[in-house]
Amino acid sequence: MPGLYVHIPFCASACPYCDFAFVVGRDAHADRYRSAVITELDARAGDIEGPLDTVYFGGGTPSTVPPTQLSDIIRLAEEAVGFSDDVEITVEANPNDYEHFSALHDLGVTRLSLGIQSMHLSTLVALGRSHTPDDARRSVQTARDAGFTNLNVDAIFGGPKQTVEQWEADLQELIALEPDHVSIYGLTIEPRTPYERQRAAGTLALADEDEQAAMYDIALSLTSTAGLDQYEISNYAKPGMESRHNLACWRGDTYMGVGMSAHSYEGHARAWNVRNMNRYLERIETGESPEEGREVITDETRNLEQLMLGLRTRDGVDRAVFRVADTAYRLLSQNLIEAHGDRLRLTRSGKPLADLVSEQLARDL
Ligand code: SF4
Fold it and tell me: Given the CA of residue 14, which atom of ligand 1 is nearest to it?
């Protein structure tokens, strides 16, 4: 079944590592933006065959806008496309937006994804986050009190001046909050971000490769001990609490994205909207399509993408997709992948090298 992605770009502050499409200080445009998204969704609803299995509000920080704004979009999606009986509706949320959680639950949101990132104030400050560890604790408690039984928390390791020991303590505190799902990412420096400029100027001290590897290993151990199963390289969940939105993306299911910068995918093509907010609003308000680009997906590209995405998951990839097995045998002998029935998947030592392993296996597709 297909999914819907809705991009809500508003943020309280700009995090120096972020390369998502977001705006700061433009909350006065929230109504206008909501109207534009509704116009786009209304116009494109006929392009996707319902019912929707997942709806995902990403950003930006969707929790920062009044929940009624998301409510209008949810109702239109339900009326115009339809929802499956147990539709998963996720909202990405900043911990200090906890006052909105009860209203979000009441309007049918089933899953909150909290951008906690760290439980240490010094790390949060270094990451440019606007919340404190106390906000994080309060956000989890408020979400539970509001009735959310499906809660993700995001965590980042390898930030400025973070030691391996600090990360271990940090993740322990985060897991002690008892989330149902954790997404854990190593910090990467993206082009054209303040962090990239600071690194170029030599003023950004980050964990080196060995420290990042040790931090990743700690993540594997602590999540495993807590009963959070690693179902993808960066994602861990209690049994049955995997993100259906994530799983659908990795499987290559159809989804439609609305809002600035949103991507849509339907097996044979991928399309994306303009990234700039003014241009997005102008296009919608003048009756133009917000689509900025479109790429035809060939069988070859699709197979390659499925290999790269599938290999990152717990289930791995079907060994039948390979023309020859030479590379697979070599990687098996190097203990970077393992056989699991008809499938091949990464071993613990292969996981940190996922991109390299995919690249090598791709030669045998
Ligand atoms: S809150 Fe999220 S989307 Fe907004 S700037 Fe920070 S990382 Fe980027």
Answer: 5
